[in-house]
Amino acid sequence: MTAGTLLYAQSGGVTAVINATAAAVIEAARARRIKVLAGRNGILGVLREDLIDTTRESAAAVRALAQTPGGAFGSCRVKLKSLDEDRARYERLLAVLRAHDVRWFLYNGGNDSADTALKVSQLAATYDYPLTCIGVPKTVDNDLAITDCCPGFGSAAKYTAVSVREAALDVAAMAETSTKVFVYEAMGRHAGWLAAAGGLAGQGPDDAPQVILFPERAYDENDFIDKVQATVARVGWCVVVASEGIRTADGRFVADAGAGKDSFGHTQLGGVAAHLAARVKDRLGMKVHWTLPDYLQRSARHIASKTDLDQARAVGKAAVQFALKGLNATMPVIVRTSDQPYRWKIEAVALDKIANREKTMPADFIRKDGYGITAAARRYLEPLIRGEAYPAYARDGLPKYVALRNVPATRTLPEWTG
Fold first, then answer.
1. Residues 122-161 as b or e (16 or more Cβ within 10 Å = b)
2. Residue 222's pLDDT is what?
């Protein structure tokens, strides 16, 4: 084995292809004879010295990992404060890194995870510890700055577009005597990328979804109700795709669950589809159905995008390459070089240009009336959902997903009680 250990961890909401990134990291490190440890449940596992020894996994298991959804090593939602505010936790992190001779740290997540990777790099510099930190992109929200798209988004977008198209056929068939309005809720706190992906389900003005609600546009109930009513009058039925993060003009989340904030400090959202459905029923008297795909949209490996899978693996391989080159505090990002034909490449970008920043939908991606996507959005989105990457299926008709052994590495430090 090469001297030094590579530590990999997953953070935030998992995706259909985050394990493909993990598999690429392990395979790339093994090719260089580098030992890979994984933090169990993200940075929490590092703090607890609860590390997984991936050398105990077979090559076949690692290959199978690439077609398995979820987060094989566990994830978490933990946001570290500044070095001064969280000094005890940072000193514990440093002790664990030293104990296991960790020289490369790869943190696979979104905005807050990029911030954590940046802070760990600053910690190492403060204590003169030789460590290269790489943020590895992942998020179905597609809201990371700089990168053209985020691994995990393409598959969730494909699931959304397919689901909306299929549900629309159901609604159209039943509209004469049953459901006239169907509301589909898509993830997206501040950015409407997944809701926009629903727009790929149709082509013409009367194709579903006839109404899309974006966080980037203020929600006006009266205007929304008028739009739904006019659509039903013209088409006979209406499909609405709503982002969970839509807000009123005064900045209030329509779906504020009143349940406080999560560990990242984000408002807990819940039930925008149910709320919209109730308002349509109350004001228009129409039969309405709604759905909240929730985890389904981010875990649907059975309908993953081939483009997304390829990009998830590419950022994992590049992360190892960047780490070994000493490109500290960077992230491998996807750069689009051509729309037709669709081409892309991987480049390194400094983490301080990405951490705690958010990429929302460009104005020219949203139709002037605020309820649909433009041709520019379609050009951007369509390549990201192209290609199928079906997992292998067992004789029982279910996908063959792998469960890793996740053998713990030997602990050498006192138990952490923070």
1. bbbeeeeeebbbbbbbbbbbbbbbbbbbbbbbbbbbbbbb
2. 98
Residue 1 has pLDDT above 80, yes or no: no
φ and ψ at 356, to 5 degrees? 60, 25
Q: What is the pLDDT of residues 354-385, one digit of tens each?
A: 998 999 999 999 999 999 999 999 999 999 99
| pLDDT tens for each residue of 30-61 | 999 999 999 999 999 999 999 999 999 999 99
Where in the chain are the domains?
5-139+302-355, 153-301
Query: According to the model, what pLDDT value does residue 270 have?
Result: 60
CATH topology of domain 5-139+302-355: Rossmann fold (3.40.50)
Q: What top-level class would CATH report for the domain 153-301?
A: alpha beta
209 cis-preceded (ω within 30 degrees of 0): yes
> Can you give the pLDDT at residue 259?
40
Q: Are the beta carbons of 371 and 206 closer than 8 angstroms?
A: no
Rounded Cα–Cα distance for residues 320 and 317 (Å): 5
Query: What mean pLDDT is reported for the chain?
Result: 95
Inter-residue contact 194 to 243 (CB < 8 Å): yes
What is the C-alpha separation between 104 and 241, in angstroms, rounded? 42
Q: Does the active-site annotation cover 84?
A: no
**74-to-40, 113, 185, 300 alpha-carbon distances in Å:** 6, 14, 26, 17
Using left for φ > 0, alpha for ψ between -120 and 50, and beta otherwise, residue 102 falls in beta
Whole-number Å distance between alpha carbons of 79 and 188: 19
CA 279 to chain CA centroid, Å, is: 30
How large is the average pLDDT for residues 392-398?
96
Question: What's the average model confidence in pLDDT over 111-139?
Answer: 96
Query: What pLDDT score was predicted for residue 412?
Result: 96
> Is 153-301 in the same CATH topology as 5-139+302-355?
yes
Q: Which of 112, 141, 143, 308 is catalytic?
A: 141
pTM: 0.95
Alpha helices in 12-71 (DSSP H): 18-31, 43-47, 59-65
User: What are residue 54's phi and psi, to 5 degrees?
Assistant: -75, -10
Greatest Cα-to-Cα distance within the chain, rounded to the nearest angstrom: 71
- Indicate the burial class of 399 (C-beta count within 10 angstroms; 0-12, 13-18, 19 or more): middle
